[in-house]
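Quick board copy: two proteins, each given as sequence then tokens.
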Amino acid sequence: MHLIGLVRSNFNPLFFQASLAAGGIALMAFNFLQFAVPHGEGFIRFTDIFWSSLPGLQLVLYGVLVAVMFPAVIIHVLLTGIFLRGLFTWLSGRQTVIGLINDPYRNFTTFPVIGSLAMSAIVLWAPVGFFVPQVASGLQSLMLPSLVFFGILFVALFSLEFKVLQVLAKGPVDTGKFNFGWLADVFAFGLVALNGSGIAITANDPVIARLAGMATLVTIAVGLVLLATKMFYLVRNQLRARRLPDTPILPAFFVLVPILCLFGISLFRMPPQLQTFFSFDVTSFSSQALGLTYAAAVAWVVFAIVLLTDYFKTHFIRSKYSPPQWGIV
């Protein structure tokens, strides 16, 4: 109860980075099992793993992944519930909300709310379904509610982005003050695209699949344009500054990694939708896109670690908490 009261009285949309990170950890463990363990069609379930026949190393590895996934799911659900209560209280303070939206240097901090909720839907289908057979077996019955929820996120994401762009257009805005945390909206676009692409390839109903696919393609296109535009300004700012940002902001460099992976996976899932809408096959392109985005993500990790070597040696353990640290997670 103390935590709930603390969140409600000191709410910040960036709190949702914690629930997003917990969901991401659960999904990472699930994805490893999904592709490593032979099973039938659809998502893997706990009962698909024949624990008694596993070699020792695999038994330990899969056991650790399940042991990580289960509490991560619980933490994601609990934090999402707590943060939603704080969000509703915060939204009732109209002037505070308007003030944040109209601040071009802080309004991007609102996007983790949408990103975390998009992750919640994915956690429900996959990690929760891993532990609850009824969810996995009834996945098709969740497709229509999932499409409705995806539609709400889609509208909320584009509406919020439109307001943010309006504030930027009114200016004057010093783009030199932005850092990699400015990519929070692109991160949300990637998560919503992952959500929509999951519906598009999972739904047996062709209408649901097509609607989700069309909206996902729009989300990917806009997200990639935003990514390219913002990266141009961020790289330019860094080259002009000729020095690293302040210490609390440095971990934000890593936020580009999940963004690249999210768009890579979403593009990889899209060939059936592109063939439906435009009557051409881009399967080979999608595979190349996935490989390129993951290669770029690995390269950026190496680059960021080398660039921030002093930060990890001197400040990482001793520094106080700052929201950009979630970028490493």
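And the next:
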Amino acid sequence: MTVRSFYERASSLRQLWELNDKPQVAENNGVMFGFTALGWPIVNHGGHINCEQMWVLLSNDDQATSYIQLVDKKSLKSGAYNSCFYQISDGKWLELLYENETIRINGFLTNQVSSF
């Protein structure tokens, strides 16, 4: 799983939102999800992102791909929502957050979970 493939999947779902006359909810990969005000897919329960379901939604039907560890944390840069940190290999992490109703996906290296 790479930052690029996660972002491509999010972009694809956003395009479907535009093409389908901007529905409030949709279903894909068995995951019910909504959209931010700008059309980015989000699995949101009362202002809290469901990180496990976001992984399923954005992993693009790749059942073989999984993460080693998940850290779900509220941070200043994620605004109204929590951020999701997925450890995808030893020392390699993927961060998913929403900033100004826009999805952000970052990859980074660290061995310190406490650094988030």
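Board note added afterward: The mean pLDDT is 87.
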